Amino acid sequence: MISIQEDNRMNIMKRGLFILFEGADRVGKSTQVQSLTNHISNSRNLPTKSLRFPDRTTPIGQILNQYLQNATNMDDRALHLLFSSNRWEAKDSILELLNSGTNIVVDRYSYSGVAYTAAKGIDVDWCYSCEKGLPEPDIVFYLSMSTEDATKRGDYGGERYEKVEFQMKIKQIYEEKLKRPSWKVINANRTVEEVSNEINQIFDSELESLQKKPIGTLN
Ligand SMILES: Nc1ncnc2c1ncn2[C@@H]1O[C@H](COP(=O)(O)OP(=O)(O)OP(=O)(O)O)[C@@H](O)[C@H]1O
Ligand SMILES: Cc1cn([C@H]2C[C@H](O)[C@@H](COP(=O)(O)O)O2)c(=O)[nH]c1=O
């Protein structure tokens, strides 16, 4: 039988998981990132950190923030490459966290990058090409609900992309061009607790097997 000390030591040696939340605006990603981060830290007692993209704190992130707040304009492809660069500049710290055993719960990543640029009519393969080589998420939770219902949620309309027609295109690209069979599609049009209970259960059931897999790479 394994002693508690030995079990703790083995846990320390396990790598962290990369958990990603994706979906259109206002589907509840940030709320669920916070909830799962609390679950992993408090109920599972594992080191956990939440991250979000764009990371608006870096110099590149500040340029993106100005664009999102309609303070500047930019060529769509140049903008796309900046969103991607904002992920590449985080690559080493993501890998360090995972390799040191910290789980990361991430609010948007490469799939947001592709969905939002492709919704402007730019080729999906071109959009995805600059994501190849980045660390691959272990679980993607895709939060799904109708654009109409998401629009009714708080504070909609403030930033550049918060327009109903554009959001409908984004949803279509996620669901028709990006969604992989491995994605966990979550009905987001339920209470916060109903959604988080389902997500916590999925996380708990996949934790052990995913910890044994090597960290993947987007390809
Ligand atoms: N399950 C839910 N039911 C009702 N309201 C919710 C639910 N989840 C989140 N909300 C509310 O909806 C709003 C948007 O939530 P949140 O910021 O988590 O979404 P988001 O997907 O991260 O949005 P965005 O991508 O636009 O930043 C907030 O006011 C939040 O309190
Ligand atoms: C990562 C990423 C994001 N976007 C868009 C999507 C949203 O409209 C904003 C971010 O808003 P949030 O409230 O901070 O989630 O940026 C994008 O166009 N491309 C990307 O790669």
From TrEMBL:
- Top-level taxonomy: Eukaryota, Amoebozoa, Evosea, Eumycetozoa, Dictyostelia
The keyword Kinase is assigned to this record:
yes
| Superkingdom per UniProt | Eukaryota
Q: What is its EC number?
A: 2.7.4.9
Under which pathway is this protein filed? Pyrimidine metabolism; dTTP biosynthesis
**One GO molecular-function annotation for this sequence?**
dTMP kinase activity
Annotated HAMAP family: Thymidylate_kinase
What is this protein's name? Thymidylate kinase
Concerning CDD domains, the annotation shows: TMPK
Report whether Kinase shows up as a keyword of the record: yes
Name the protein family. Belongs to the thymidylate kinase family.
